[in-house]
Design goal:
heterodimer; A: 595 residues; 21 helices; globular; B: 252 residues; Rossmann fold; four-stranded antiparallel sheet
Chain lengths: 595, 252
């Protein structure tokens, strides 16, 4: 057996001295720093290919269908614009400019949030900070990481849009290169700006507080953009008759909306290539600004990063004062068993103390306002057709409301089981019945969803002055549909858990989230389909009665049977979509193992 | 109190735990030793009901874990090797939550929580979110949570990891006192000195099987190790290949 002396002898004597350190070129260092990310991505893809071929194929097909859909939509729109003399090409440019401005604001927000993770909170940072890596290499690698993490989705969205522009306006074989030349600096700029802003914030606040602040800022900004766009009522701009003269309308279209924004330069660069004459100025502006921004960002990083990184490692003491709330909640939940009460309290505390979770409620509130706003400004008259529309819209709106509720369930209920992740050992090792856990997860998620659903339906129905029958149908349907959607979200979240995720916001965008949304659409569609016939019978009878005319066709004798069958089938779908998923979730949860 | 019969866990073609038979009686502090990957944590997690055995039986206080998991788990406290807990709960809330999972609440839970937080020097942190705790503080909070419902059996995986010397000493005293009161503790550890000085009996696990089991004297006799310490017995039973490999690497 070897002794520690022998080990030390080996270290001091016979083992060769470590080779002298050679300076590694910057590019090689950047590549080395990025290699773990790339290798992780590659391993994930390979594992995915081996284990879940069907899943990969389904995702690829969905992606291709999405791309094709966007391409066809933009292609048709641009073809229509192209046919309109004078205004058409201007409108096409305006649409591209608007899209690029929208993307730019999304890129700014996501770069700020991503930069916080990649520069200050990522798990690999200790290793990079302790290694003799050049500061510029660390900055470049982290900037690339931030840019890719925040821009890939926008990049994928941009491909079919730009392809449609290239095809419709005959961009030629060089157009992909031109588009790249106009888009790459457009992606670099928000990455540099976002990283710099995060760097400044972290030097003022602790990193973990900064994350909370950024979440709220991001949500408020997103909510503000949605509200602003909606309150401007952009649909009016699509009606040139609203302007005093065509000249005024053309002048508005020609004027650059925001000449200092890189999105405007990218739009101008692309449109000047497509419609001529080619203008090199926007390319020059884009690339020189991007280069200057990277240089300034690097200088700022050199000055402020060491201090900011050090501050990010410090944890602040966070005292929670929820005594009053706890007492109220305990009183309200007093009739529940101890286990269920503690589980519900835990769910509520974790939700309301996690800024990234509760701040999404702001977005929901905005969504509700926009929804009601849309209904309020519907141009409906008091004629018999108007009354028909008033009563038809709430029914059709069930589709939209159902989809909105499904999206909310995907965001809040679907991740429930995944979020237990690393703490799952505690629930498993305790004498907790799986049913209690599911019960708490289901009702904590479903009750707020129910309140929202009933609020949406009752407020919009009240605004439209619908009659009692339609009000009853829409309220009952949305009630049953909400129970079903919540159960399905919980079920798919249990069947496809994401225990290892570092970012809760990414859980709904996983494969399971996609499957849930598709299933939710099927259930919503089936419910509305089954209810369509009895509602149609009722509304047509109402319309004829209001118009004071007899129906041209006699009322079908089986209208009562239609009602029973239609509403019965819709109810059955909702009940089945509630009970079966909950049972499946129960079985699956009992089998989940976390090594 | 703990009875394992033919306990086996397979992951595909890999057998992590292979037919382990073991009985730990009431009032015993039992040590579980073995090199990394020996199957200790898997065994512990099967006893705690976190992992489902491929074959075999686990009985806790005479209750079969497979047929009555709620009954068996209600007398058990588990301390994992990694301190993952809810970041957004305070220390006091976490202890209240764990007691709630075991169906307990009220003033007695509050009193016990306060006592346990005091024992582990966490009183000043009771109303602070766990996210601001250090690794060691989290470990202490988890250990406290395993005692909050007064279990008959405690299964603990690597208890000393992350603890400062003072907390480690407190834990040793707590474990000794707990077993003197008739409770049972099963503990896995890499700290041979801890096992040698604290445990009534020790099992050495290697390759998913128990290679030796008994008191220190019985282990010495089995290993024909004379008056040698546990380290020598451990290395003899589990092989000293790792040390030779280390030298090979350094020489290369």
């Amino acid at each position: 057996m070897s002794t520690s002396g022998e080990v030390l002898d080996a270290l001091d004597g016979s083992a060769p001295a470590s080779p002298p350190r050679v300076a590694t070129p910057l590019f090689a260092q950047v590549r080395l720093l990025l290699s773990p990310k790339w290798l992780t991505f590659r391993a994930r893809v390979r594992r995915g290919e081996r284990g879940h071929r069907a899943r990969s194929v389904a995702l690829l097909l969905l992606g291709a269908a999405f791309w094709a859909g966007i391409f066809v939509l933009i292609d048709k729109l641009l073809a229509y614009f192209k046919g309109v003399p004078e205004i058409g090409p201007l409108l096409a440019g305006k649409v591209l400019g608007t899209l690029l401005v929208g993307f730019f604001s999304i890129l700014m927000l996501s770069n700020v949030v991503s930069a916080l993770s990649s520069f200050f909170l990522a798990r690999d940072l200790d290793l990079a900070a302790a290694a003799p890596a050049d500061w510029l290499a660390v900055y470049t690698a982290k900037l690339v990481e931030t840019a890719i993490a925040s821009s890939w989705m926008v990049g994928l969205m941009a491909v079919p849009i730009l392809a449609a522009y290239g095809v419709v306006f005959g961009g030629g074989p060089l157009f992909p290169l031109i588009a790249l030349a106009a888009i790459i600096p457009y992606f670099i700029l928000p990455a540099v700006l976002g990283s710099a802003l995060t760097l400044l914030l972290v030097n003022v606040f602790p990193a973990r507080r900064t994350r909370d602040i950024l979440s709220v800022i991001a949500i408020f900004a997103a909510a503000g953009v949605v509200l602003m766009i909606r309150l401007m009522r952009p649909e009016r701009l699509a009606r040139p008759e609203g302007f005093r003269s065509l000249v005024e309308f053309v002048a508005v279209l020609k004027a650059p909306a925001s000449p200092w924004l890189p999105s405007e330069w990218s739009q101008h660069a692309i449109m000047s290539w497509l419609q001529g004459p080619v203008d090199p100025l926007p390319f020059y502006l884009l690339w020189s600004t991007a280069a200057a921004a990277v240089a300034l960002g690097a200088a700022l990083h050199y000055r402020l990063y060491p201090l900011g990184f050090s501050k990010a490692q410090e944890s602040s003491r966070t005292i929670a004062s929820a005594g009053g709330l706890s007492a109220i909640a305990r009183a309200v939940l007093g009739r529940l068993s101890v286990r269920r009460r503690e589980l519900v309290l835990k769910e509520l505390r974790v939700f309301f103390r996690d800024t990234t979770q509760w701040s999404q409620l702001i977005l929901l509130a905005v969504l509700l306002v926009v929804y009601v706003f849309n209904i309020k400004f519907l141009p409906i008259t008091d004629t018999s057709v108007g009354v028909l529309l008033r009563n038809l819209i709430p029914f059709v709106n069930l589709l939209v409301a159902g989809f909105v509720l499904a999206s909310i369930a995907a965001r809040f209920i679907f991740p429930g089981v995944s979020l237990e992740g690393r703490t799952f050992w505690l629930l498993r090792a305790s004498p907790l019945d799986v049913g209690d856990l599911l019960w708490a997860k289901y009702w904590v998620g479903t009750l707020p969803l129910l309140v929202l659903a009933l609020l949406i339906v009752s407020v919009t129905d009240a605004l439209l002055h619908v009659d009692a029958f339609i009000l009853g149908v829409s309220v009952t349907t949305i009630l049953l549909m909400t129970l079903a959607l919540a159960a399905m979200a919980l079920c798919f979240g249990t069947i496809f858990p994401q225990f290892e995720t570092e970012n809760a916001a990414q859980i709904p965008t996983s494969f399971g989230g996609l499957v849930f949304m598709m299933s939710a659409v099927v259930v919503i569609g089936a419910v509305v389909f089954f209810e369509a016939r009895p509602v149609y019978n009722y509304l047509s009878a109402r319309m004829y009665a209001l118009a004071g005319t007899a129906p041209q066709r006699p009322r079908p004798s089986g209208s009562v049977a239609d009602m029973v069958i239609g509403f019965g089938l819709a109810g059955t779908v909702c009940v089945a979509a509630t009970v079966i998923p909950l049972k499946l979730a129960f079985r699956r949860l009992a089998l989940i193992e976390r090594a | 109190m703990i009875e394992l019969i033919g306990l086996t866990k397979r992951y595909g073609s890999f057998t992590a735990v292979n037919g382990v038979d073991l009985t730990v009686p009431r009032g015993e502090l039992f040590g579980f030793l073995g090199p990394n990957g020996a199957g200790k944590t898997t065994t512990m997690r099967m006893i705690a009901g976190i992992l489902r055995p491929t074959a075999g039986t686990v009985r806790i206080a005479g209750i079969d874990l497979a047929t009555d998991p709620v009954g068996a788990k209600s007398v058990l406290g588990f301390i994992p090797d990694r301190p993952f807990i809810y970041e957004k709960l305070t220390g006091a809330e976490f202890l209240r939550f764990v007691a709630g999972l075991f169906g307990q609440d009220g003033p007695s839970v509050e009193r016990r929580s306060r006592e346990l937080l005091a024992v582990f020097d966490l009183e000043d942190w009771r109303d602070e979110l766990v996210e601001s705790y250090s690794h060691g503080m989290r470990q202490k909070l988890i250990i406290a949570s395993a005692f909050v419902h007064r279990p008959d059996v405690i299964v603990v995986d690597e208890p000393m990891v992350g603890l400062d010397p003072r907390a480690a000493r407190t834990l040793k005293d707590l474990f000794r006192e707990y077993t003197h009161r008739g409770h049972t503790i099963m503990m896995s550890t890499h700290t041979l000195e801890v096992a040698e000085t604290m445990c009534d009996r020790i099992a050495i696990m290697h390759g998913g099987r128990i290679r030796a089991c008994g008191t220190m004297d019985e282990l010495r006799a089995d290993a024909v190790a004379g008056a040698e310490g546990l380290e020598t017995i451990f290395l003899r039973l589990t092989g000293d290949r790792a040390v030779r490999e280390l030298l090979g690497v350094l020489d290369a």
